[in-house]
Amino acid sequence: MNKNRLFAAAALLLATLSPAAAQYKPTRPVEFVVHNGPGSGNDVFARRLIQVIEQEKLMPVRMQVANKVGGGSTTASSYMTEKTGDPNVIAVFVNIWLVDPLVQAEAKTKLLDMTPIALVQIEPALVVTRNDSPYKTLGDFIAAAKEKPGQLKQSGGSITSRENVVRQLLMTHTGARWSFISFPGGGERLAALLGGHVDLMILDPSEAREQVRSGKLRVLAQAAEKRLPDFQDVPTLKEAGFDVPDVPQIRGVVGPPGMPADAVAFYAELFRKTTRTAAWQHYLADNQFQDAFKSPEDTRKFLGEFDDRLRGLLTAAGVKVVR
């Protein structure tokens, strides 16, 4: 073999062995799948990520949100399965991507069938009522629910959502009973509360902060392990006397099954850089979210453990688990 051929063979071998040499970079717009409609928490999360990425010029191409609504997370997860191996499609995941396969026999696609890219944040929740409500504390609401079983109402998302799991845990713990009214969008749930059609809501601090600041909502308790900086005068559920497990909302990014390793590495680094920016850190602080960035490997480990934890929480809340 002459020197030129030897050098060419060596270069080919190095390219094969070096991940950096074969680093994926998208050359066409990237689809960012969200399982809720426009204006939902997941939609806002995806669009905020895109906004920071564009501000910081971290991507060579544009990212476009694709809302795949229906069946909880099942429409979106089925769509991701159809995109197996596609490096130009990613998706937002939250708790329901783990919960749906646990409680729906027909939900065949599991979150861990996807390709984990990054856990991004953990979100506490607030238990709120209208400011003109007679309930000054969560204890007041629980007492009223005991006096009028099934008559008080809580707005929320699907029956497998965090807010319904917390409701089930509280009812099991206290013996109180109240109804759960499911709405497809966060705006409709909040409108039902503000309009007096329901009495209670459990929602993210980001969804409540303006209504609390304007005096339209009263925070009764925090579904969090410790008090949030902006709500230091409001007790956590445990501090309020309700010893129920914490049910955090997680939010992160996955790729379709079989996403190439170099694409996974590209997106993981993209979101690591994004979440380290001042703009993203300000977004977290302003919304009372917790920075929880994890690598693909650590995200997969976390999701496996969190899946087991959610199974236990659902069982404790009296929800039928099918697998």
Describe this structure in words.
By secondary structure, the protein is α/β, with parallel strands linked by helices. The protein has 2 domains: 22-122 and 249-316, 3-Layer(aba) Sandwich (D-Maltodextrin-Binding Protein, domain 2), CATH 3.40.190; 125-231, D-Maltodextrin-Binding Protein, domain 2 (3-Layer(aba) Sandwich). It contains 11 helices and 11 strands. It has helices at 3-17, 41-55, 74-82, 95-103, 138-147, 162-174, 186-194, 205-213, 261-275, 278-287, 296-316, and strands at residues 30-34, 63-67, 89-94, 115-123, 125-130, 153-156, 179-182, 200-203, 217-223, 249-255, 290-294. Strands 2-1-3-10-4-11 form a 6-stranded mixed sheet. The chain starts with a helix and ends in a 7-residue tail after the last helix.
Number of strands: 11
Low-pLDDT runs of 5+ residues are 6-21
* CATH H-tier superfamily of the largest domain: Bordetella uptake gene, domain 1
Spatial sequence of strands, sheet with the most strands: 2-1-3-10-4-11
Q: What's the SSE pattern?
A: HEHEHEHEEHEHEHEHEEHHEH
Determine the strand fraction and express it as a percent band: 15-25%
What's the mean pLDDT score? Answer: 90
CATH class of the largest domain: Alpha Beta
Distance between the termini: 59 Å
Q: Please, how many helices?
A: 11
Q: Give me the oligomer status.
A: single chain
**CATH architecture identity of the largest domain:** 3-Layer(aba) Sandwich
Shape: globular
